[in-house]
Each structure stands twice: as C-alpha cells, then as structure tokens.
C-alpha cells in the first residue's frame, strides 16, 4: 500500500487548517489604525498557531520521508492526529477573541496535548509496521522532544490558573524548541 | 487515462469538506466554560461526520489502489459521490445546531444513504470498466458492509420519528462497523 | 517545463471552489421542514454550479492528458480561466439568494460566458505551443461544443430580460450537453 | 530530501488563499444592479490580489523547477513566505471594504513588502543549499525584478499619505512588471 495519497490528503488538511485560521481575523469596518488594536491578540494567537501547524507539517514531512508503507492502524492514527489539529483554528480563535483568558488558554494547551499524544501514537503505529530495527524506528528514536512537549503542556495548563500568560509563554517555548529542525531523521537517512 | 488527478481532486474535496465543518463551531464571545456548553451537540455532530469522511477517504483510497484506469462514467460516478459528501457539512451543522432534533437527524441519514448509494454506483462503474474477473471486482466482492450500511440507514430514518437518538445511535453503529479497516482489498492485493 | 504542478494547483482551486459554495447554504436555526424551504433556490443554484465545476474539471483533465508541456502564456491563460471560475461561488450565491431574479441570472450567464471564453483562449495557447499538427490540436479540433456554449450563453442573457427562467433553462441545457463526456480526446489518444 | 511535498503543500496553501478571498465579496441581499455598486472597490481589490497570488505561484513554480533538494532552512523560509501571503486576504478585504483608504493601502503595501522580502530570503536559502555556481543560482541571478519590487513598495507606502491611489497604482505597476513571465530560469534550463 503506497503512502502517496496519505501524504497528499494530510498536506491538504494541514494547508486548509493553516489558511482558514486567517478568517478569524475579521476585516474591520473602520479604516484607521485604532480598528486594528482589538485584532492584536487574535493576530498573536494566529502567529503562534501558524508556527505550530508549520512544525507539525515539517515533522510529518520528515517522518513519512523515512516511511515505506501504510496499513490500517497507521491510516487511522494519522486521521486521529488530523482530528486534533483540526480543532486548532477553534481554540486559536477563542484564545484570540478573549485576549488570552484562562479557559481558552487551558483548552489551547489541551488541544496541543492531544495532538502531541496523537503524533506519538502515530510514530508507534509506524514503528510497529516497519519493525523495531528499521531505519524509521532508529530515526524516530526515543522522540525526546515529543515527550518534553507533552510534559511542558502538562505543566502549563495548571499554571494557567495562576497566570494565563505563563502557560502561553510555555507554548511559545515549546514552539521555539521545535523550530530547530529535527536533524535526527535527516542524519539517519544520509548514512 | 490515468487515475492520478481523479485521486488528487477527490483528496482535495474530502480534505476541504473535513476542515470546513469545523467552521460551524463558532468561536464563543465569552471565555468561561459555560460558553462551551451550547457547542456540545455541534461538537458531537462534528466528531461523527469527521469519522464518516475519514471512512470514505479510507475506502476510496483502498478502492483506487486496486484500480487501473478511469473512463467517463467512472469520473461522473465519483463526482456524484463527492456531491453527496459535500452536503455533509450542511446536515452536520443543522443537526448540531438543533441538538439532534427529528428533521435534521432524518436528513443526515438521507445524505448518508445517498452517499452510500453513490459509492455503490461508483464500485459498479469501476467493475464494469475493469471486468467481472478483474482483481478489482474480486477485491470489492459483494460489498456486504456497503449493503448493510444502506439497510441500517433505511431502518434508522423512520425510527427517528419515534426517537431521534435511536437513529443517531444507528449512524454511530455503522461508523464503528466501518472503523474496522476493510481488509478484503488489502488481502487480495497481497496475493 | 512540467505540467504536474499546474494540474495540482488547478485541482486545488477547483476543489475549493466546489466546496466553499456549500457554505452559502447557511444552516437554519429552526429544525422543521419549513426552515428548508427558503434554501430550495439556493440548493438548485448549488447543484447547477456543482455540475458546471465538475464539467470544467472533467474537460481540464481531458485537455491536459494530451498536453506535453507548459509555457508562460499557457500558465496565465490557465490562471485567467481560474479567475472566472472563482467568481462562480459569488454568482451562485447571488442567484440562489434572490430566487433566480433577473440581474443575478444575467451575471451568472456572464461569468459562464467569460469562463467559456477563457477556456477557449487556453486551448488556443496550448495549440500554439504544441503545434497545429500535434495530437493535442487534432484532439481539440474545432471545439464545437465550446463554441455552441458561448452562443447559448449569448442568447440566454438577453432572454433573461423577458423571463429569467428561460435563461436559467438554457444554462441547464448547456450543462446537459457537456455531461455527455468529451470522447474526442479519448478517441484520439487511443489510436 | 525530496521537494515534492513542499511544492504540493505550497500549492495547497496558495490555492486556498486565492479562493477564500472571494468570500469577502459578500452576496448582496438585493437583486438589482445598485446592490453591486458597493462591491466595486472590493472587486478591484480582489482582482489585484488574485494577480499577485498568481504571480507568486508562477515564480514559485519556476524557482522550484530548477531546485534539486530541500533542507531545514529552506522549509522554514518557504513557510515564512506563506505566512505573509496568508495575510493577503485580510488586507485585500480591508482595502476593499474601505474603498482604498489610507491605512489599508499602507498595510497592503506592507504585506507585499514582507512577502517580497520573504521571497528574497527563500532564494538566498536555496542558493546557499545548491551552491553559488549551481544552475539555480545562475538562473535566479541578481533578481533585479524582486529588488525593484521592494523599492517600489518602499516608495509607495509613504506616498499613500499624500494620495492613496498613487500607492495603489504603484502596486498595479509592479504587478504588470511581473506579468511579463520570468524568462531567466526558462532560458537557463533550456541550455
């Protein structure tokens, strides 16, 4: 079973998620600078989510580069990941609309947490299919960054109850950690 | 005539259907948990439709894996399937907006019914093109699951007049039946 | 210069045009059948435009099947075609919203007319690139159907001033004429 | 690392940006010609942005034609370009909604400026990866058009404070300059 259509479908869904988020930046009726001020938190929220979707696309791209085939569990693990990512436009809009208030920030973290878990499940399903001693398994390795992300989100969500901006800063920190591209798979493939 | 563009176009349409459904989850203006309560039925409705589109993508992917070519009737049978699937965001939104009320539940079932029929017609058009003794025809076989789905929808719609949740439960039951991946084609291809 | 990306980009644009039209079918707040009645003209308008986009995708698919390469004028002729098709969701919504009233019906015809012209220009640009004695030129031939479509639209628009439904019926008639798949290119390719 | 998915993802994002802009042309409730008059500036704004996205797609297509591979910095430089292009629907809507008023025209220019810069950064990242004496580097050359575009935008934005239409005319002039297809890469590839 070929991986081409799974990649194409995932690309499509990620491209649409990325782009419809901008629809939450509603065009103001006034033409002065003041009309943009209420959009500032929505814009920050958009930038953060744009970077997160970019990171997921990037990692997904690297992951499937090393993959050789697809089976039923992998298809559904991938669909499960897309489900959580599809909720990002909603929590992005909610967080921006309410100026990084408590509950939206917690739910944003929750969606990131489940997306991170879904990505982890996907890597396990792929390793199970390719074998523990495959190039793919070796390339994924212990996925330290993925585990650290989940730990950060788990810490961030309760911290939001003290100060939402602390949680939001932790989400930004995780994004920065990922922006350093994942050289593990590239390195393994080059050998 | 190659099948590549038909797959790419179908992938695009399915990816967009999947993703625009989330736009029905309108971002609430309030930031507290209560603001999410009215979204609960919309969210359940979204999850169900997400799974259904996932199932259709999955089956479409399996089906075309075994296909070798395309002709005019197949192109239009595929377009006909996409038409009914394109109505899913509308009935999903209507069902969620009205908390699984009678008429939306009946129409949701109606759209599933026509989509199921359209899928059946597509398989017949493909068997007619590939021949009754082709790998594809053998792999599709009697399509027992597809026929059972149509029977379930047919039973569910009148039952909705007694209790809409019974019909909705049957839609869920059909989805669960399909979540077990279709190993028929995979098995045939492996031989 | 390869044609793959031009096909992929056109597929993406056509898939999105097809799917965002359904967003004009606004989810009603009431759950009874009466709530659907005002949607009837919008639904008819949607079905007509769905078929037209399907026809364009179908013909585009056939056309590029026979193409070997791309140059600058072809790229822009294709973009020009996509521009007119991108206006179809707007005129579809306007025509449905106003129950097939005079001006929306005239503008719908106008967009179809310009899309038809743009398609014609695209075929000429492709023939100019491939040569008058190429397989592609032979396959396109005199494009009788395309010319008849333009003539029909030209007749339909003034007729709308007497009775909009006459013009709308002519648009339906042209769609039916195209639904018979274009065997010219298929036939030529088979030789 | 293959370039296929990066092209497919970029195509998807550009196709969606192109198409969701038309959603800003809100369907009027009235059916007469007067109902279209307030849409005129939105339509002009849409046409300009459609042409700009077309130009970016066109140049992106040419650029990657000559590319052989992808690395981390290129992936993120491309994502950075898509970010600025994703803001085009917002500034297009704002400029159209406010009839080419001062601030929207300035911000439209600002987004074009950053998109132009992002494209320039992308070409540098690609040259760094392929080498200064690669076909790609030679084909991109000094990118005179790209630099002139940035200079034009830089002049246009302050001029908008005297007369917004002067700035808007300069944006149109830059678009016309680009509509002449970029023969540099084509010419180099042909050798």
Question: Could you characterize what this model shows?
Answer:
4 copies of one chain form a homotetramer. The first copy, chain A, is an all-alpha fold and 191 residues long. Chain A has helices at 4-20, 40-65, 72-86, 88-97, 102-130, 135-140, 144-159, 164-179, 183-190. Chains in contact: A-B, A-D, B-C, C-D. Chain A binds chain B through residues 1-2, 5-6, 8-9, 12-13, 15-17, 20, 23-24, 71-73, 75-76, 79, 82-83, 86-87, 89-90, 93-94, 97-98, 101-104, and chain B through 7-8, 11-12, 14-16, 18-20, 22-23, 25, 27-33, 47, 50, 54, 57-58, 61, 64-65, 179, 181, 183, 186, 189.
- The whole-number mean of residue pLDDT values of chain A reads 90
Oligomeric form of this entry?
homotetramer
Pattern of helices and strands of chain A: HHHHHHHHH
Helix fraction bin of chain A: over 70%
Shape category of chain A: globular
| Major sheet details of chain A | none
Helices and strands in order:
The structure is a homotetramer of 191-residue chains.
Chain A: H1 4-20, H2 40-65, H3 72-86, H4 88-97, H5 102-130, H6 135-140, H7 144-159, H8 164-179, H9 183-190
Helix pairs in contact in A: 1-2, 1-3, 2-4, 2-8, 3-5, 4-5, 5-7, 5-8, 7-8
């Amino acid at each position: 079973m070929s991986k081409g259509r799974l990649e194409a479908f995932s690309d499509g869904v990620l491209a649409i998620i990325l782009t419809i988020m901008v629809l939450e930046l509603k065009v103001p009726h006034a033409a002065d600078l003041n009309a943009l001020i209420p959009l500032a938190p929505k814009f920050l929220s958009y930038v953060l989510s744009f970077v997160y979707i970019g990171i997921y696309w990037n990692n997904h791209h690297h992951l499937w580069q090393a993959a050789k085939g697809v089976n039923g569990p992998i298809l559904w693990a991938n669909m499960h990941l897309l489900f959580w990512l599809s909720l990002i436009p909603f929590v992005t809009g909610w967080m921006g609309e309410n100026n990084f208030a408590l509950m939206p920030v917690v739910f944003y973290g929750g969606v990131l947490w489940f997306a991170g878990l879904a990505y982890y499940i996907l890597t396990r399903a792929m390793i199970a299919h390719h074998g523990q001693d495959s190039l793919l398994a070796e390339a994924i390795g212990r996925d330290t960054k993925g585990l650290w992300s989940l730990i950060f989100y788990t810490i961030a969500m309760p911290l939001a109850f003290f100060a939402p901006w602390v949680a939001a800063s932790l989400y930004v920190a995780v994004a920065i950690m990922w922006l350093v591209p994942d050289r593990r798979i590239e390195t393994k493939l080059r050998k």
